[in-house]
Amino acid sequence: MATVEKSARQRILDAALKILRKEGVSALTQPRVAAAAGLRQSHLTYYFPRKTDLLAATLEASHAQAQKPKRGATGGEADPVEAVRALMFDRNRMRFFLSVVAQASDRSDIRATLAAHAHGVAEQLAPLFGRTADDPDIIAYVDMLRGLGLRLLLETDEKRPLPVDLDALAARFGLRRAPGARL
Questions:
Q1: Residue 138's pLDDT band (cuts 50, 70, 90)
Q2: pLDDT higher than 50, residue 181
Q3: pLDDT at residue 67 above 60?
């Protein structure tokens, strides 16, 4: 029975993530997610009674997916900086992130997930600069990237990418690539 429950919960999360990526957080409704997962809405509410429960779990699932090493075009691991660029500068992801932040003040589980997400991004980037994830310069760099991602939402031309030189930005924080680090 536990396998069936995990399977249904995972189908819900997969459907929610797909909707979020394609259409943004406004499209994330319980009836829509239930239909996309092939379940009745009552089944979805068994796992996620409130939309905030679904948001928190979806954020955790998104964070877990982002932490998995991806393969680059050459077959090796993908560049962590480019992975962070895709994470921070995707409009739908940032809309989702902002909506989750808005819910976080009332939910300690969401705040904990947001903190884990920021730490996970810092863990990905820190080795590139020969630093640790708790280094204040790395934390400031990640915060700046998040801020730039949020700024992207305010741009009037949604087709124009935000021109960000991640190496130059890192240098502003005193970060230099570690010898042998790929950027």
A1: very high
A2: yes
A3: no
* Among 120, 41, 58, 114, CA closest to 83: 120
Single-letter amino acid code for the residue at 172? R
Burial tier of 116 (Cβ tally within 10 Å: 0-12, 13-18, 19+) = middle
Alpha helices, DSSP H, located in 24-163: 30-37, 41-47, 51-67, 80-88, 91-104, 108-125, 136-154
Are 12 and 71 in a shared domain?
A: no
Distance, CA of 5 to CA of 2 (rounded, Å): 5
Residue 103: Cβ-neighbour burial (10 angstroms; 0-12, 13-18, 19+) = middle
Of 49, 67, 83, the domain-final residue: 49
Together in a domain, 90 and 177 = yes
Q: For residues 15 and 32, give the distance between their C-alpha atoms in angstroms, rounded to a whole number.
A: 9
Residues 105 and 148 in one domain: yes
Name the pLDDT band for 37 (thresholds 50, 70, 90). Answer: very high
Residue 141's domain spans which residues?
59-183
Closest C-alpha to 104, from 62, 59, 67: 59
Are residue 14 and residue 65 in the same domain, yes or no? no
